[in-house]
Amino acid sequence: MTTGFPGFDDRLNDVLARQADRSGQSPEAYIRRAVVDRIVRELSEDPDSEVGALLRALEDGTENGAGPAEPTGEFGTPIDDPDRLAAVARTGLMDTGSDAGYDRVVAMVADALSAPSAAFSLLDDRRQYFKSAVGLPSELDGAQEVPLEGSICRYVIDTGRPLVVEDVRLHDVLKDHPSVQANMLVSYLSVPLTDDDGHSVGTVCVWDQRPRQWTTGHIQILQDLAWIIRERILG
Predict the structure, then answer these.
(1) Percent of the residues in the chain that have a pLDDT greater than 70, as a whole number
(2) C-alpha–C-alpha distance, residues 36 and 122, integer Å
(3) Which residues pair with 128 in a beta bridge?
(4) Which ranges of the chain have pLDDT less than 70?
(5) CB–CB of 40/55 below 8 Å?
(6) How far apart are CA 47 and CA 36, in angstroms?
(7) CA dist., res. 181 & res. 162, Å (int)
(8) Residue 14: which residues within 8 A CB-CB, separation 6 or more?
(9) What is the pLDDT of residue 10?
């Protein structure tokens, strides 16, 4: 009996398993990445798609030698660094309400990673503002922000690097965090949105109410989709 992907015969499932293993991903993650790649390709070819226009601009920049900006130091800048706060202010996105373009990308993030919750946020020195999100905890009662002490994304800002947590209840730093104590999440994956000067202005993250083994494939998918947002707000 075939135990692979539904609708695939034994030969296709064997090929799928081999290719996924070569890429260091599970077959499920490999398929999700392939689907995201196709979505991105189709959007980039759609002349009426706002996301497609952004993707085409990104592709042009890559062909001309541009690429993802890297933080200038080993770590990010502190959450209250004046230059970082100025970079957040320059985005002009704090307290600006929903945006269909960002909403579409965040929905793609959730779908691509099979996560019930995803968000694009900006953080100043007082709060985390959800510019776009799906699956926010009911405890927030419709609020679009949380105070900084209730934010896990702040740790991503401080390091300027992805944060990958399979089970926050077992994490030395996060196990006592208010969001964890309130049972708002169990697993968490986040990447920073960093400008050319190394200032992390926000994050793109996903989380789940159950433990998750985040793979390198998951991280790459999140970084790819976060780059779309990064280019739109930081250019």
Answers:
(1) 74
(2) 24
(3) 123, 146
(4) 1-8, 23-25, 29-30, 32-76, 235
(5) yes
(6) 19
(7) 22
(8) 4
(9) 78
Residue 66, pLDDT score = 37
Cα 149 to Cα 216: distance, rounded to the nearest angstrom: 29
What is residue 128's predicted lDDT score, i.e. its pLDDT? Answer: 97
Contact 200, 193 (CB under 8 A): yes
The HSE-up count of residue 146 (CA atoms within 13 Å, CB side) is: 20
Place of tokens 């994490």: 171
Longest Cα separation, the chain:
61
List C-alpha distances in Å: 186 to 65, 68, 112, 165, 189. Answer: 40, 30, 19, 8, 11
Token output for 60: 């042009």
Place of tokens 């020195």: 125
C-beta separation of 186 from 211 below 8 A = yes
CB 166 within 8 A of CB 179: no
Assess contact for 84 and 78: CB atoms under 8 A: yes
Structure-token pair, residue 189: 């994956």
What is the pTM (predicted TM-score) of this model? Answer: 0.70
CA-CA-CA-CA torsion for 65, 159, 167, 190, nearest 10 degrees? -40
